[in-house]
Amino acid sequence: MAKRTKSPAEIKAAMEALKAELREAEAREAERLGSLAVKAGLHEIDIDDAVLVSALKELAARFQSSSQLSNTTA
């Protein structure tokens, strides 16, 4: 039995649904990370946003490197 192809409208609708799902997932992650940042006391630090973003990027890179190493050795 042949697979029915989706129309462009159906594909666009599916893409929009996925975009909405992605926005919701990103919002949940933002809330989670914000809560963790408050628990860690980051809300009490008087620091420029650009400096904080840079420090967080360094932290992310550190953990991404260590998780990649553990994935390759596992």
Description:
By secondary structure, the protein is mainly α. It has one domain. The chain has 2 helices and no strands. It has helices spanning 8-39, 49-73. The longest helix has 32 residues, at 8-39. The N and C termini lie far apart (43 Å). The mean pLDDT is 91. It holds the Pfam family TraC. This is Conjugal transfer protein.
Secondary-structure-derived class: mainly alpha
Strand fraction: under 5%
Number of helices, where a helix is a run of at least 4 consecutive DSSP H or I residues: 2
Q: Compute the separation of the termini in Å.
A: 43 Å
Q: Give the beta-strand count.
A: 0
Q: What is the average of the pLDDT values?
A: 91
Helical percentage: over 70%
Sheet of most strands: none
Low-confidence stretches: none
Radius of gyration, whole Å: 20 Å
Oligomerization status of the protein chains: single chain
State the shape: elongated
- Order of secondary-structure elements: HH
The total tally of domains equals: 1
InterPro entries: TraC
Pfam families: TraC
Protein name: Conjugal transfer protein
Organism: Aliirhizobium smilacinae
